[in-house]
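check these C-alpha cells.
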Amino acid sequence: MADEYDYDLFTIGAGSGGVRASRVAASHGARVAIAEEFRVGGTCVIRGCVPKKMLVYGAHFAEDIEDCQKFGWTIEKATFDWKTLRDNVLADVDRLNGLYTETLENHDVTIFHEKATLTGEHEITLASGKVVTAKHILIATGATPRRPDCPGNEHGITSNEAFHLDAVPKRILIAGGGYIANEFAGIFNEFGSQVTIINRTDTLLRSYDESLRDRLLQISMMKGIDFRFHAEFRGIEKNDDGSLTVSMTNHEDLEVDCVLFATGRTPHTKDLGLQEVGVELGEGGEILVDRFSKTNVDHIYAVGDCTDRVQLTPVAIREGQAFADTVFGPGDPVAVDHSCVASAVFSHPPIAAVGMTEGEARNKLGDIKVYQSDFRPMKNVLAGRNERSLFKMICDASSGKIVGIHMIAPEAPEMMQAAAIAVKAGLTKADFDATTAIHPTMAEELVLMR
C-alpha cells in the first residue's frame, strides 16, 4: 500500500456501510482508520431499524394478550411498563455498539471517536485538531431526520428521540406518510396512545403497491389510528400544562402531548468539507457516485444513505463490501446491483415487497397478469380478529416471469426473504405453481394464487 500516507483508507462514519467497508479493507491488508462523532453502529443499530424492531415486538404483545383468550389462555391484570421495554432496548443497543467496536478493533482498524472533516487533497482534520492523510477516503455518514420548517418545530421530536421518551404519550401526532411514520403509528397505538397521522398528500407509502397501501390504511383506521390528509404545519405552540397545540392547513387545530416528525431523511453531508475539496452533491445534498461508489474526485468514495441510491441498511452493507473488494481486493471491480431490492414496512400488520408494483409493471411492460389472494389468517379467524391479509403477484403476460410480489400479512417480511430470491432469479408463475404448498401456512398462498 502507499506509505506516503498515514492510512490507505480513512472512513468517515461508522454505520453499517462504513464498518463493513473498513473491516473488509483491513482484511485485505489495508491500513484503515474510521471516525465516528456519535456511536459506532450508525442509525440502524443505535437509533433505527434494530431498536425500532424491538419496539414492534413489544407492541405485538398487546394484541397477542387479547387474542390468546380464544385459545384458552387467561392472563389477569396484564400491565405494560414502557420504561422496562425502553431500558432493555437501550441496553441491547449498548451491547451491539460494543460488538461493532470490537469487530473494528479485532481487525486493527484505528477508531477516532470524533468528527472528521476533509480539509485538503487526501487530508482529514479531526475535531481534536489532529491532521491525518489517506490514499483513499470513504464517506459513510448516512442520513438524518428532516424537520419541517414551521414556527415551534423545536417542540417536536424525531425518530432519534422516540427511543428515549420518559413515558408513552397519551396523544401523539405523527407527521409523514412513509415507513417510519406508519411503523411508529402502529407501535404507539398498541401501547395505548391516541395516534393521529398527518400527511401533506393523501398517499401513504407511495413506493408500494396501491392495493397494499389501501389495505394498511383500512386496517389502521379499524385499529383507531386517525388520519388527516392534505395537512401541512402552520405552527406548534407549547401550552402551560406541557401539551402542544398544532395548527395545520385544511384541518382544525389539534392538542397533543407529543409531535413526532417522520417527514423523510436528509443525507448527512453538511460541514464535512466535501464541496471545498470538489465533491459534487445533488440537489438534496446527496453525494453523487458511479456504480463503483466513486465520486467525481478520484480518491473519494461514498456508500449508504448519504448517496443518491437505495436507502436501506443491507444495501449500504453490500456497497461497503463491494467498495472494499474493488479498491483493496485481489479480484475484479465489484458493483452492486440495485435492481429488484426487497423491502419491508414493520407496520401493524407488516408489508413486504420486491420488484415492480402493478402500476409500474403496466407502464413498463403493458401486458401483464395479476394474481392475488385475499384471505383471513387462521389465527385471526379463531381469535375473532376481523383483519384480512393480501398477497399479490405481478407477472409478464408473455413469458410468465414474476416481476413483483407484494404482501401485507403477519410475518410478511419473513416470507418475502425467500420469495425475493425467486423473483431476483427470474422464476415464473409456473415455477411457483409446480411447488407443493406447506399446509397450513400463510406462505402457501404464494404457490396457490390463481
Residues 7-145+266-328 form a domain with the FAD/NAD(P)-binding domain fold (CATH 3.50.50.60).
